[in-house]
């Protein structure tokens, strides 16, 4: 396993936001963590990448215990995160933002090649390479945030709600890109409220509710699961035309 959470518990003061969860992502997998607003998804991600200290449990990455390791150290070890709200540098140009993603790397030629690669994936960014980040549209900023994470040559990419606030067509484009990145061999943990889209592109999924993970499994099984369909895919049990088999 490239990433393993074992009994992870995270609290804000007296409030437990993550209540002892287990989660694993194997090399080459695209795994999603879905759940409603406030379920604890972002908190989990922050604990993985060292932005929050877990109260209990362990985070293992690439064979080592990284619990509590600061995020800047993890970037150098191939763990990159695209935060909710993107976190791009508004004053810097598109090209400078992308260069910041590669600051841990010494191979200038490789960085040059990857920059061109990001511009191939996102032609829109290439057209705007000298424009400052703050003047980009929401969708373009999301592309820039993903592009910047790609510049660190990650082994594991953590994506926090890449679809948030984007028009449906752009969401589609972002998800296609996530698939493309996965096909190139980057392992991805995708956090999403858009459960249907996330499950459609993932190999496996975890469902988070009030700090716990009541359901997990292959994405296709979760998509067919009546509990998931009712709670996360906007389908009512009454609209379920197929007979539901009780698998318990
Ligand atoms: P969203 O999709 O809204 O980001 P989420 O599943 O990512 O939801 P979290 O942001 O992880 O959920 O929040 C989990 C719980 O922790 C929520 O009840 C939230 O109110 C609480 N919480 C989050 N950040 C803080 C904080 N800084 N201080 C106190 N409580 C917090």
What can you tell me about this protein's structure?
With 248 residues, this protein is an alpha/beta fold. It has two domains: 171 residues, 3-Layer(aba) Sandwich (Rossmann fold), CATH 3.40.50.300; 68 residues, no CATH class. It is built from ten helices and ten strands. The strands form two sheets. A six-stranded mixed sheet has the order 6-7-8-3-9-10, with helices on both faces. A four-stranded antiparallel sheet has the order 2-1-4-5, covered by helices on one side. It is globular and about 45 Å long.
Unreliable segments of 5+ consecutive residues: none
Regarding CATH, which class of the largest domain? Alpha Beta
Instruction: Look at the helices and sheets and give the structural class.
Output: alpha/beta
Backbone shape = globular
* Distance between the ends: 28 Å
Helix fraction? 25-40%
Q: What is the typical, i.e. mean, pLDDT? A: 90
SSE run = EEEHEEHEHHHHEHEHEEHH
Output the CATH topology of the largest domain: Rossmann fold
Outline the biggest β-sheet: 6 strands, mixed
- Which strand order do you get reading across the main beta sheet? 6-7-8-3-9-10
> How many helical elements?
10
Say which molecules are bound, naming each kind only once.
adenosine-5'-triphosphate
**CATH architecture descriptor text of the largest domain:** 3-Layer(aba) Sandwich
Number of strands: 10
- Looking at CATH, the homologous superfamily of the largest domain is P-loop containing nucleotide triphosphate hydrolases
* Count of the separate structural domains: 2
């Amino acid at each position: 396993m490239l990433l393993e959470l074992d009994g992870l518990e995270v609290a804000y003061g007296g409030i437990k936001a993550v209540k002892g969860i287990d989660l694993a992502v194997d090399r080459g997998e695209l795994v999603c963590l879905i759940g409603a607003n406030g379920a604890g998804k972002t908190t989990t991600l922050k604990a993985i990448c060292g932005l929050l200290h877990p109260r209990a449990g362990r985070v293992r990455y690439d064979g080592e215990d990284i619990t509590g390791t600061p995020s800047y150290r993890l970037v150098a070890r191939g763990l990159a995160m695209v935060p909710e709200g993107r976190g791009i540098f508004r004053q810097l140009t598109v090209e400078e933002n992308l260069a910041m993603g590669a600051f841990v790397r010494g191979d200038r030629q490789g960085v040059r090649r990857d920059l061109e690669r990001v511009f191939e994936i996102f032609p829109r960014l290439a057209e705007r390479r000298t424009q400052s980040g703050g003047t980009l549209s929401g969708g373009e900023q999301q592309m820039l945030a993903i592009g910047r994470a790609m510049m660190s040559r990650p082994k594991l990419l953590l994506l926090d709600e890449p679809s948030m606030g984007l028009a449906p067509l752009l969401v589609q484009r972002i998800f296609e890109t996530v698939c493309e990145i996965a096909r190139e061999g980057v392992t991805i943990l995708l956090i999403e409220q858009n459960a249907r889209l996330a499950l459609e592109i993932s190999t496996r999924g975890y469902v988070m509710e009030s700090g716990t993970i009541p359901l997990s499994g292959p994405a296709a099984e979760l998509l067919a699961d009546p509990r998931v369909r009712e709670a996360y895919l906007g389908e009512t049990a009454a609209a379920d035309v197929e007979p539901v088999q009780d698998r318990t």
